[in-house]
Amino acid sequence: MYEKYWGLSEKPFENTPDPRFMYYSKKHEEALTRLLYAVKEEKGAAMLTGEYGSGKTVLSRILIDELIKNKIYEVALIIHPQLNPLEFMQEIIYQLKNEHVEGSKPKLLHMLQDSIYKNFREEKKTVVLIDEAQIIRNQETFEEVRLFLNFQLNNKFLITLILIGQPELLRKINAIPQLEQRLGIKYHLTGLDDKETQEYIKHRLEVARAQREIFTKEALEIIYQYSKGLPRKINNICDLSLLIGFGSEAKEIGKELAEKVAADLNKKDYAYAKDV
User: What pTM did the predictor assign?
Assistant: First the structure.
């Protein structure tokens, strides 16, 4: 809608996990490095936590992209983990075998085991990545997740489990010592700092082929103050600023416009918090 007005080839601040727009801060680079290390070195289990909108989902998609480039990895991605234990196992088997399965828990466990050992015989590594893992409410499901790590040889795990979620995931995992102690890798992702926020915005504008500076230095400061460096909130304020600037025929996004948008978004955030 506003792309032509600002001289952009596409919208630069969409909240979608598009790897092209990924800005690698030092924190994101370290998080990705740790997750890749956990998988490639067959560490058994790893966990990435972070605030809502900190970039966890984008990192998970980049991780998967890195793995599927190498045909030795078979990856099951669970993005709706609010399943009971049987449904959870069915979904993993479906993603690994590409077929719907029914049956009792022992039958499903045998199917999963067969699939994992088949991958092993074919020199493939099995990876199960659970996004938004904090919404798993059933304790039995966490127990099933822990039992996946029993698929192992004397010197290696036959499955790598990646848990990704918001900070409350850490509290849930800490309440299950048998699972927490088997996490070989942990990392908590925080927001960008002031300089990284500016670089993040610049990077996304460059991907969208911006030909000039659109946000003033003062506006960037307001954006950082509002967003606290969380990529999702940066995207929200930048996208709305571009829209409002287009509507008002602004030449640039300045301090006044950014403050107006931030104030509006803060009202929405407050209303949402009350509703929750």
Answer: 0.85
